[in-house]
Design a protein that fits this description.
mainly alpha
């Protein structure tokens, strides 16, 4: 990744992006469900459209569409929400030091912190779906 420390920069920036995109995927699946569209149909459409992202196609937060996803194992990790929160905190701390605006990163950190406060940070980070659905 170049100079010393750039690998860590890439890691926290990548994980910040992942944490943000997972929350977006959870919100979209939750809204689709509330509006009467089942998870598989939404997945089939969105995974081939502009909303396609790794959080949906490889690690779908809604049970059903991606057999290997933690959502099909009651959100057993994978990558625990506690680890995502640690990385979100590192990214936001770095952003503050660099004077870089990361409003979605800050909001995402706050959302994963709610999982921690609920004692559910041992779930996979895609378990934020349970928080968004009001199941925590």
């Amino acid at each position: 990744a170049g100079d010393a420390g750039n690998g860590q920069v890439a890691k926290i920036c990548n994980n910040m992006l992942l944490g943000i995109s997972m929350i977006g995927a959870c919100e979209a699946f939750n809204l689709a469900e509330k509006l009467g569209l089942d998870a598989q149909t939404f997945f089939d459409i969105s995974s081939a459209a502009s909303g396609q992202c790794w959080s949906m196609t490889s690690y779908c937060p809604a049970p059903g569409p991606v057999e290997s996803a933690p959502s099909n194992r009651d959100y057993k990790p994978g990558f625990a929400a506690a680890m995502m929160l640690k990385d979100m905190r590192l990214a936001n701390e770095a952003a503050h030091k660099a004077k870089a605006a990361t409003p979605l990163g800050a909001q995402s950190e706050a959302i994963y912190a709610l999982m921690e406060a609920a004692g559910k940070d041992g779930l996979d980070f895609s378990g934020v779906m349970k928080l968004i659905r009001g199941d925590l």
